[in-house]
Amino acid sequence: MELSELWFVLIAILFIGFFFLEGFDFGVGMSTRFLARDQKERTIMVNTIGPFWDANEVWLITGAGAIFAAFPHWYATMFSGYYLLMLAVLLSLIGRGVAFEYRRKVEDARWTNVWDWVIFFGSLLPPFLLGVLFTSMLKGMPIHEDMNMEASFSDVMNMYSIWGGLTITLLCLLHGLTFLSLKTEGEIRQRSAALAKKLVLTVIGSLIVFVGFSWFMTDIFEVRFIPELIIVALIVLAYGLSYFFISNKREGRAFTMTGLGIGLTVLSIFVGLFPRVMVSSLNKAFNLTVYNASSGAYSLKVMTIVALTILPFVLGYTIYSYYVFRKRVSDKEHLTY
Amino acid sequence: MDPVMLARIQFALTTIYHFFFVPLTIGLAFIIALMQTLYVVKKKEIYKKMAKFWGHLFLVNFAVGVVTGIIQEFQFGMNWSDYSRFVGDVFGAPLAIEALLAFFMESTFIGLWIFGWDRLPKKVHLASIWLVSIGTMISGFWILTANAFMQVPVGYEIRNGRAEMVDFLALITNGQLWVEFPHVITGALATGAFFIAGVSAYNLLKKKHIEFYKKSMNIALIIGFIGSLGAAFSGHAQAQYLVKTQPMKMAAAEGIWEDTPDPAPWSAFAWIDTKNQENKFELNIPYALSYLSYSKFEGSLKGMKTLQAEYAKKYDPIVGEGTNYIPPVKTTYWSFRLMIGFGMAMILLSMIGLYLWKKGRIEQSSMFLKILVPAISFPFLANTFGWIMTEVGRQPWTVFGLMTTADAVSPNVSSGTILFSIIMYALIFTILAGVMVYLMVREIKRGPVEHQDANSTVSIDPFNKAGA
What we know:
The complex is a heterodimer. By secondary structure, chain A is mostly helical. Helix content of chain A is 78%, strand content 1%. In chain A, strands 1-2 form a two-stranded antiparallel ribbon. Chain A is globular. In chain A, 60% of the residues are buried. Chain B has 2 domains: 25-173 and 414-449, no CATH class; 215-411, no CATH class. Chain B is 73% helix and 6% strand. Chain B is built from 15 helices and 6 strands. Chain B has a two-stranded antiparallel ribbon with strand order 1-2. In chain B, α1 (3-42) runs parallel beside α15. The longest helix of chain B is centred in the last third of the chain and has 44 residues, at 415-458. The radius of gyration of chain B is 24 Å and the shape is globular. The N and C termini of chain B lie far apart (61 Å). The chains are: A mainly alpha, B mainly alpha. The interface between A and B is large, with 72 and 79 residues. Chain A: This is Cytochrome d ubiquinol oxidase subunit II.
């Protein structure tokens, strides 16, 4: 395997990690607005993700950084081409990050309420927008010979990409709900499990529609028919199992399954893309691939050594942090956020 | 308006704003880790109280620093895509390493620190804040590795129409990096220290929690002195390095149009006329510039006119005939002087402070304390002017000698789009600044003792007797 191919795999892993981890804290952030009965419950819910959300977000930052380092052309084309979408992602993440820290810095219900709305939209918009981004990337964007992309609004926002955005958002919401049922007690735990159970069928439905859409709108099933078919089958299986585990109150397993569902969905996107990183809708010859968009061999070698050395430590202390805060969160204890 | 200008305005806006929070984060994290170490070693409650109180202010600042940092990583691709294509092979690596090595560490251990006061063993909890502090400095190291490349490009070769990395070691042993990194870190320590000193001074004037703020003040003055003195020495080393590597920037920073006499005088004040390329009025200190540049009382420096001719010969084949290689002189000259001025004031203040401390008169010296409060702004101003000098003084280059700023911008992004995003950032930055200042002032007014009481009652469920 060439190093540029390896980096495509590493970037795929970073984005799978991002959606698996930040996926549930996006989901928790979204559900605060309709699952919690009052501010006290919202506080408990926000505190379940308190120690984790920041590090989860770093998976995205690292993913973007890895794209920059390993595929400068991919980075340049994508970030300049999706300018307004990126701006919206940034503004959402800015608001969200500050909101967690500030929501209870003043003991005033209105103050907290405003920040909780920021958390809601800050958790709802990024998965939707990133879903739109990846879906439209699969379909192909107007990328010219000079690798620059000049997209109109409808290139970014169309039926297919919006459906993709909504689907990713739903996957995150479900993942957040299974996380909540795992990390809370009493009523919130029951309510989130009940809602998760209701949501599973909607999620499977929207995924099937998404697959149907993709069949007509993209070439991923032509390029990788068998692997994509297997992944889709596994996704449906994962969500089917999550339904079973939620019903049987096996919350840890249900959470694992919804995480697996998200991970496999992101995987299907990267499998469908490979070896392309940006598909041109104008001409196949203008596609950006792992071969024509990558950094030089030396740079990739350095990056590979550095990444493979550091990653075990990152995984180690990440697991430690989840171990330290493994207990269920309730208002019987001091809640920081 | 020209997209290049707008993209530059946006870069200035977002980086300057981001860099209000970064040095404060680096400085405070270190000082808080120090305070908590004192707590664990000496087992005195007051140090725990200190770590907690300053920790609260730290977190209010940290949140904004983190979120405004994400913009930086995205904006190279958004506004400077041709730059990203040209240098990504070299420049992307330090950014990715920064995320892998520093951001994961900072974000995971800050979570453990915030939520771990009652859950972690004392020493592990202490280790968490130290790892946060180390993480902030590692982060600084890698982003400065990237910046140093823009000032003094090393370890690359031009291949396939772009700069490709050929020597990673050269990147991290870049001489520019090793004068820049200590300068930024010491400056950041001084920033954290002057923040604590100023807030402590305010409360000592109000005669509140005297013991608490006196102890905080003591730590802050020591770190403030080390930091500001270290920034001066490393800054001096950096200036000497600049004379060798980017003489044009130095000539602009000193307002030198013609080659200086030997020995060269240092300009304390100059009325600069950019149009006629001369200074209408100068106030000079003889010998000083020779000494500052070469550590001896001889040697001359080249003026901007000579350098323009030299650069034209060397670089016109790359960037085109008739390029102006002289940066905005007044901005470079004055930002350099303002940085030095505020830096010197900080050294002086920390020395006076330590003297008063030693004499045991610090809490009675109301005049001095009154100066310390607005002096909180000094390091922020010095940091900002330092970066303006460094970045504006490098113009017209983005990467010195390799790529001009005008060639670096995204060709597919319109002026209107950039303008729109500037307005959005300006709006959200204004709101964030307002909220942050409001929260800081609130926490400071509350003070350390009340804060803890409030903290433990806030979260308790009124219906849950067992929890209270």
